[in-house]
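[job 0412] stage=fold_complex status=start
inputs:
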Amino acid sequence: RTGANNSHRLFCSSLSPEFDSSIPLSLFHLPFLRLLFCLQTTSVNQLEQTCNFFPPLSLSFSTSSTPSVTLFRVSTPFPMASLQQSPAIKGAKVLMVGAGGIGCELLKTLALSGFEDIHIIDMDTIEVSNLNRQFLFRQKHVGQSKAKVARDAVLRFRPHISISSYHANVKDSNFNVDFFKQFNVVLNGLDNLDARRHVNRLCLAAEVPLVESGTTGFLGQVSVHVKGRTDCYECNPKPSPKTYPVCTITSTPSKFVHCIVWAKELLFAKLFGDKNQDNDLNVRSSDSTGSSEQAEDVFERKANESIEQYGRRIYDHVFGYNIEQALSNEETWKSRNKPRPIYSRDVISAELMQQNGNSDKAGSAGDPLSVSAMASLGLKNPQDLWSLKDNSRVFFEALKLFFGKREKEIGSLCFDKDDPLAVEFVTAAANIRAASFGIPLHSLFEAKGIAGNIVHAVATTNAIVAGLIVIEAIKVLQKDFDSYRMSYCLEHVTQKMLIMPVQPFEPNKSCCVCSETPLTLEIDTNHSKLRDFVEKIVKAKLSMTSPLIMHGSSLLYEVGDDLDDAMIANYSANLEKVLSSLPSPVTSGTMLTVEDLQQEFTCNINIKHREEFDEENEPDGMVLHGWTQVPTKPKDDDDKPPTGNGDSSKTSQTETVEAEAEVVVKINIEEIGASGNKRKAPDSRDISTDPPSNDVNEATAANHKKVHKIDDGDDEEELVMLDHWDIDTNKKQKLR
Amino acid sequence: KPSFGLYGTRKTFLFSSDSSKPILPCSSTLSEVGAGLQREFGFPVVWFGRCVIQVQFTDSGISRVLGFSSLLLNCLLIVNLVTRVRLEMEGEQLTEQETALYDRQIRVWGADAQRRLSKSHIFVYGMKGTVAEFCKNIVLAGVGSVTLMDDRAVTNEALASNFLIPPEEKVYSGKTLAELCCDSLKEFNPMVHVSVEKAELVTLGQQFFEKFDVVVISSCPPATKILINEKCRKLSKRVAFYTVECRDSCGEIFVDLQNYKYMKKGKADGPASECELRYSSFQEATSAPWGRLQRRTSKLYFAMRVIESFEEANGRNPGVFSVEDVPAVLQLKRKLCEAQSVSESFVPDTLLERLVIGSIEFPPVCAIIGGILGQVHLFALIPLKFYTIN
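[job 0412] stage=fold_complex status=done
writing structure:
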C-alpha cells in the first residue's frame, strides 16, 4: 500500500513464517522505496538474511519491547553508492565507442561504478597531444592502440572485470546489428558526426539504448536516446562542417580562415597533392590569364630550374601576379579593401635566400615527420607571430625541404595537422596571403588549430561528462525512464547551475532516420551524374558506408564485397551517367530508395528536377530537403527550435531564457554535433504564465511541460539530485 | 651508491651531498637516480652499465652523448648541464615539450594561464575518491607540484572509489593512502612534481602552508577545516583554501579565495571592469543563521551542517555511520531547526537519510565533483573568461 505524503512507503504486515526471500528482494530493487515492516520476530532473521544478500540494505534490526511484533523502517532512499553491487550493473554488458578523451574517463568511471563486462572500440592510436587528458596513456604508449592500452590500464586497478578491446573502426561490417544486439546499452565518446550517425542507426536497428556525449573546452553534453521513448540522435539538426563559397576563397578572402583554406585546400594540394584532382586554384588563374596552357605550367617545376628559382616563381605567381590580375577587375573592389600584390624580391633579398635555412638541423630524411623548416631556420616558439619576411622564409624553406627531403611523397600528399612541415607551409602561405589582403597574421600554433580543425579539450570536462554518462547509463539499465536527462556542462553559472539537466526530447515524427518520412532532393537530372548523387548526398549527407540505390525494383548502384565483375562494371558505368539517362531513368517525380544494409537504414528520396542553383549558397548543385541539418541562415535563427515545433515555443521563451540560450547554442563544434538543437533552460516561470496555444503540435507541447517541470525556479528544492523522482512528483502536483 | 641530493624549484637546481631535503633519497641506486632525473627534468636520461651516461635533449635541438667514468662526477656534471640547459630553455616561455603536451588545453585557456598553472603548488589532505579525481585533473593540467598527506591505510572503501590505489594487497600493504596515490599520480605527467608529507595535520604550523598556493582539505572534522582555513588566512601571501566532501550522489565544495580581484566582462563588448569578491571563511560560511540565508540556498547545505554537528557531537570520524543513526540524526535536525527558528521542512528527511546511509562515495559523482573542483583551481587563475565559484 502506498502511504501518505506520496513518499512511496510500503507497509508490510504479518509476514508469514513462510516468508519468501524473493518478495522483499524484488521490492528492494525499486529505487527510493521506503519499507515499513510490521513483522513477527521469527521473520526478522529471514529478512536479515535477505538484506545481507543484498548489500545496499545491510541493516541492523532492533526489536522493540513488544516481543511478538517488531516495527521498523527498513530502507530510506536507495543509496546510489551501493549500486556498485546491484545486479543491474554487475550483469550489464556495455559497449563503449571511442577510447579518447571521454573514453578514458568513461572506462575508469564504469569500472569503479561496478560494471563488469565492458567492450570498447577505437580505431585510433595514441599521440603526444592526447596525454594531457587521456590519463590512461603514457609517453611510452605513443603509437599504440587506444582501446587496447586503455583496457590494460583499467585492468590494473580492476583486475577481475572483463574488458574486450577492438582496435577497429566502428563502421567495419563485423560490428553489425547482431553485434550491437548483445549489449544492454551503448555509450558514445566519439569525435565525429559520421560515426555518431552510424552508431545511432545501429542502435535504432538493434533497439539498444544509446547514451551520446561530446565536449569542447569547458562545454559538454550528454543525452539519452531510447527508441520510441526519446528522440534519436538524428531527430534534431546538427551543424554541418562549415563550407565557404569558392570565390571567397579564391578571390575575396576577408578572414584568416579563408586564407588557411586557400593555402591548405588549393595551394598545398596543387603543389604537393594529386595533380589529377580538380583544383580551383588552377581554374581561377587560367580564367584570369586567358591562357590555360600558361597556368598549367606555372606550378610544374621546369627542368634545370633550381629550387630557389622555382620557389620564387610560385611565390610571385600566387602572391603577386594573381593578385594584380584580380585587381584589374575593378567591379570586385568597389566595396572591398584592395589587396596588395607581394613579390619575393621586395620581401627577401637574394643573399638572404642563399643563406636561408640550415638543412642539417631540419631533421632526417628517414622520418618525414621530423623534417621542419622552423628547426632549420632557428625559429623556436610556435606561439610567436612571424613577420611577412619570416613567413616568406618559412615558405621557401618548407618548399625546399619538401623537394629536398620528401620528394617521393610529392604528388600524393594530403594536408595532415600532425605533419609539421605541411603545417609550416600552410601557415606561411596563409599569412603571406593575409598580409596581401590586410588581414591580421596568426602564429603557427593558431594556424594549426584552424587548419587541423582541432577541438579544444580539457581533462575536467571529460571527467564530468563521463560521470554524467554513467549516471544516465545506470538509469537506462534500471529502466528508470522518467529520470532520463540531457545534461549540459556550462562555462558560466546559469540559474545557479554549472550542469543543466533537461528532459529528453520526444521523437521527431518527421525524422527520416527513426521515422520513415521521405526526403526531397532538388537536382538537375539532366546534368548531375549518379556519382555526384552518391558522393554529395548518400555519403556526405546521409553518412552511409555501404549504400544500395534502387529505383523501384531496378538496382542502380551497390557497394559490397560479394559483387561479380559484370555487376561492378555495370555500377561504375552507371556512376558516370547523368540521372536522366540511367538504365531506369531518374527524372522529376521519381522516388529513389537508398539503403545501407550494415546500418539497416532505409530512406526514400523524392526527386525534383531543378536547373539553376546558386553557386554561393548551394555549392553542391543540389539541395536536400527534410534532412535535419542546420540551415545556413543568420545567427539569430539558431535560437529557433528544430523543425516540427510551432510558434508557441517561441512565445514561451522569456528573455532570460533567450540570453542563456546563447550558452547552450554555443555547444556545438564537431565533437558535439548538436547545436541548433536548442533546449530551453529549465525554468517554470514561463510555463505557469504561458499556457501552450491550441495550434501547437502535440509533441512540442508535451516536451515543454516536461522541460519545465524539472526545476520550478521557486524556493523549492533546487538541488539537482539523482533522486528527482520525489521532487518531480511534487512538482507535477504543484504545477497542476 | 652515490650520496647526493637534488632539490629546488623549477628554475634553480641545487646540488648538495648533505641536503636536508633531498628529492631523491641518499641511498638511491643508479637506476633510481636516472628515473629521478627524468621525472625531475622531463628529459630522457639513459644509463649504460655503470659508466656511460647519455643525455638527449631532443626538444631543444641539442643532442649530446656524454661518457664518464666516475660515478660522482657523472652526477655532478649531469646536474650542472641539465640546470644550464633548463635555464636557457625555460625563461618565461613554455618549452616545446610543454606546448606539444598541453596543445589542446592551451587552445582553451591560453599560454599565459598555462604558465601560471605550472607555477602553482598544491597541498592536498584526505585521499578520498573525489580528491583522487581532483588530483588526477590538476596533474594532467600541469600544475607545478602536488603534495599529498594522508597516513591512513587502505580500506575497502578506499579501494572502491579511488582508482589510484592498486588492488593487490602485496602492493598496498604497509603503505599509506598518500604514498600509493603519489606513486600513481607521478605517472600521469612527468612534468609535475608529486610528493608525500607525513605529519599530523592539526599540528602543522602556519609557515608550512606558506609554501603552497592552494590547500585542499577533505574527510576531516569541521573544527580541523576551520583551523587550517584560519592559518591560511593569516599568511601574508594569499593561499586559496578548498574543502570537498562527497556522500552518495551528493557533494559539497567550499572555496575561499579571500579577497579576490578579477576583471568582469563589460556588457555588449563594453570595457571590462575590475571587481573584487570577498570570500567568507569556512567558519563564517558554515555558521550563518539559516533563516537569513538566500531563499534558494540548496537543501544540501543545511543537511551537511546537520551531519557535521552530529559527527562532532558524537565524536565520529567523518562518514562513519550506520542506519541506526538515522533516528538520532533526524532528532538533531529537529533540534537545529528549532534553534535556528526555521521550519523542519528546511532539511528534507529523505536527503538526510540518504547522506547517512549512503555515506560512501558514488564514483560517477566523484568524477563530476572532482572535475568541478579542478576547474575551480583553473578559473581562479584565468578569471576573465570563466566562472568563479563563491
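[job 0412] summary: Chain A touches chain B through 72 residues (CB under 8 Å).
[job 0412] exit 0
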